[in-house]
Amino acid sequence: MPDDDAPLDPFDPLPDDAGSGERVHALVGQGRFAEAHALVSDAFVERNGSAGYLLRAWVLAQERRPVQAREAVDWALALAGPAETADVFVLAGVVLLALDEAHAALTVALRAYGADPDGWEPSVLLSDVYRRLGRLPDAVAAARRAVATAPRESEAQVALARSLSASRGLTGRIPRRHRAEHATAVRSALELGADPRHLTAPRGGMVIGGVGLALFWGTQLYRIETGGAWQLIAGGAVLALTFVIIAFVVRAGTRRSGITARARLRGIQATTRTEMAVDDWLWRISAVHVSASLPLPVLLTTGLVADRGWHGHPWPLWAAALAALTGLAAVLLALAAVPWWYGAALARRIVHYGGLVRVHLAAAAALSGGTMALAARGDATRGQWAGLAVAHLAWVVGGWATALVMAGRLQARRRQTL
């Protein structure tokens, strides 16, 4: 398996052909894929069922043939009955992680844990999957369960060390509360013969890339807010170009994996709903996140109108009205997406949680109406526009600060239950 993936060994003896897994492993390590495929023949797969398909899928994944590998995984899962052993689902999760299908791997990891809740292998797989998804508290909790179940298994100690090391900040330092536990896990893993290269989780670029993209978009929005017409056009063109690049990257990923963006999205959606159905903390945290997204469309529409008026360039009534309607439509569209993504039952809980959505809807309507009122007057002073612009900014900053505090408290309370 690649060094940056879960260190689980998927080559335990199969029900039949007991030594074939080790031989296939050796052949793949030497790059002799044709001979590996000869061992994992159709007859071999037929004798071993799901496990045979999954061994074939692993070989295909290492051969960089993701479409065929995912097809073999799908066949294996289709053949797996309700009484299937956890080993099959663990191996399926390992293969899906190798294919960079973390959300699909989470689905089978949960099935593995359900089939053997007292086993350490499903917990190690869950830890690796959660870590890849950026859900570090869940990753640490799963790794701790694995260590509590099998303290003498090196892979359990490695999973704990990797999940704790993934919590290091931008400076590369592990949080103080995790340092002693991390040192103990590393020491135990090395004593049990673990490879030192497996003890540190690779630093993911998603968070840093997301921060960079947010700063880049913020710079363009600042140009739009403070510049003239040409700055507005240039900033808008750059933002449009970034969306084109994102679409191109998604399309390239579809060609590489053979899985369409729509199918991948449905898989993520199904996993999200399944987890929230059994974890009340997750939908509460999502409710806070949904409410925090509502001020942004209004800030980018009527907030822009107010800012331009503040700087002595008020928009005509028709343009202000169009901006207000666009912002309100975007807010309503975001709310309409909640039941589509989470389902009707969860959506009702999310929308009504704490009255957050109602407060933001009232603020959006008030600020949009105020913008249109000032634009309709035609003689509004710069001070009035300044007050409206500051109100937009205060609403956004206050809403985001409130969401940050609430989400942090909910996350902390959820960690206590893991």
TrEMBL record:
Protein name (database record): Tetratricopeptide repeat protein
Residue ranges of the TM segments: 228-250, 281-305, 317-343, 355-376, 388-408
Disordered: annotated segments: 1-20
Keywords carried by this UniProt record: Membrane, Transmembrane, Transmembrane helix
Presence of the UniProt keyword Flavoprotein in the record: no
InterPro entries: TPR-like_helical_dom_sf
